[in-house]
Amino acid sequence: MTDWNGAEMERDGIFAGNNPFEIAREWLAEAERTEINDPNAAALATVDAEGLPNVRMVLLKEIGEDSFVFYTNYTSAKGRELTVNPRAAMLLHWKSLRRQLRIRGAVTREEGPAADAYYASRSLGSRLGAWASRQSQPLSSRAALMAEVAKVTAQKGPNPSRPSFWGGFRIAPVEIEFWADGAFRLHDRFVWRRQAGNETWNVERLNP
């Protein structure tokens, strides 16, 4: 359900639709045809135990029915931060389209069949790399990392299982903003907001 709050009449073209996840999937699909590299690259923002913000690029792997999914090592800096404070913000910026998509919400782990399936779809090198890398921990040299990769390759063979310390995170947004560039910096912005666990969205146009 959606409460249009007067914004429905103005939302046409690239902003049209009754489901923000469907609109987001349409924007990503268009970016896949226009962006040269990694159209699913997203800036992920978290905070540490002291409340200090942290941001890095990740790859968005799924826009589900009610969430946005990415994968990582749970012992990485972002994994540890999301364990302490399971809330995050994400930004996708498509320079070729002059658009951006902003997401904020609560985070839960994706450790089931979906995580297993995505891990199995990765290249063998990437699967072995997930085992070998102690992500975000100090590393003495690249040679040490490659030695660990060789060790893991010998141990795990050609079909390694998904590590228990590696999997997905789902962001269930309470806010999704669609932004498109406008002439003279008079951009178009529509934000969808809802309470956590509530299916009802409120949509508003924002000043640029």
Automatic annotation (TrEMBL):
InterPro entries linked to this entry: Pyridox_Oxase, Pyridox_Oxase_CS, Pyridox_Oxase_N, Pyridoxamine_oxidase_dimer_C, Split_barrel_FMN-bd
Listed Gene3D superfamilies: Electron Transport, Fmn-binding Protein, Chain A (2.30.110.10)
Catalytic activity of the protein: pyridoxamine 5'-phosphate + O2 + H2O = pyridoxal 5'-phosphate + H2O2 + NH4(+); pyridoxine 5'-phosphate + O2 = pyridoxal 5'-phosphate + H2O2
Domain of life: Bacteria
Cell membrane recorded as keyword: no
GO biological process: pyridoxine biosynthetic process
Entry-linked SUPFAM superfamilies: FMN-binding split barrel (SSF50475)
Residues reported in the UniProt entry to bind substrate: K61, Y118, R122, S126, R185, L186, H187
Cofactor descriptive note: Binds 1 FMN per subunit.
Residue ranges occupied by any Pyridoxine 5'-phosphate oxidase dimerisation C-terminal domain in the UniProt entry: 166-208
EC nos: 1.4.3.5
The entry's keywords: Flavoprotein, FMN, Oxidoreductase, Pyridoxine biosynthesis
Chain's role: Catalyzes the oxidation of either pyridoxine 5'-phosphate (PNP) or pyridoxamine 5'-phosphate (PMP) into pyridoxal 5'-phosphate (PLP).
UniProt subunit comment: Homodimer.
The protein, known as: Pyridoxine/pyridoxamine 5'-phosphate oxidase
Organism: Roseovarius azorensis
